[in-house]
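Narrative summary of target 7.
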Amino acid sequence: MSFQVNPILVKELRSRMRGWRAFTILTIYLLVMALICYLIYYVISADSNLSGDGRPLSPVIGQALWIAIAYLSLIFVAFITPALTATAISSEYEKQTIDMLQTSLLTSHDILFGKLISAMSYILMLLFAAIPIASLIFTFGGVTFGDFVLGVLIIFSTAIMLGMIGLFFSAWRKRTLQAIIFSYLTMLILMTGVYALSLISTLLLAAIEPNTDKLFSDSSYYTLFFIFAIVRMAFALNPLSALASVFASTSYGNIGQFFGGISLTLGLFDEQYEIYPLWYYTLFLYALSAIVLHLLANRSIQPIRTWRLGKRSIILAIAVCVILFALGYMINTEWNVMTSFICNEVIPTNEHFHEDIARASKVLWLDLTGF
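Modeled conformation, tokenized:
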């Protein structure tokens, strides 16, 4: 394994920073962030009602600034990253320079890593450039350094995920326009599609609730839990929900924070039963998706597509297995927590208790999987 500087990375960084576009985007980003922070400070400071309950005003301002900066950075990164990577490989095909890259000493992994790291370097520059404005958070207080680091981690992991989506479509479609369209459609689905799913699930639960006595008798709560679990996994793919779960809790969440700060289960579950916060799943799912997309993009740009795995592919495959194991462990842990709650708080003890659970679980598994 070579530790030399990737020539693709050097070339991309030099070409990107030569033009006016990179600095214009950076300037607009900082100006918008500064303006929004000033407006938040002005509005909260002018509203004397916020300090009328005895709470100090400074932490309220700090928390409001942190939420605004984090969401603005996330939305900005979400719209910038696909544009940086969706043209990376397709432009080489359109300029007919991909053959020179494929016949060089660079492997397909080197090409992809160079393109991805150059885009992520620009995203990191945007985040670091906002540090002077973000430092106001610690001036006012109300936000710990751990909260700040965790929020930045969510934003940067989102950038890597969206960057790999752009690289995959760029390598697969080989046309810049198609790659950009597919990349932004995927980004919009991740950002907004889960809220439509949440609305559908809410309407479904409203229709099920009057007829719960007809569903698996005493085990009808398993039906509700499966519906919530499916919707929650969809919410884990949404970076906005993941960031909301960081604001809601920085260690362990509760049932009321099932969807990342936006509770759709209020009053249904007891909040003393703790579950993992949503951003746990988001980080694992994003890492898994990025690795899989990298392997698919790598195969798309290989001049000779063999099924033999190289060293890097084997390492990435092992990483996929580790991530799947961790996800399985977390899901199993939450299932045990939910089962304990249902057993102890919902279903009354009777002689048919175990038979009801087994029957409900079997029927639900058949309905969801078809096996």
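The beta strands are 253-254, 274-275.
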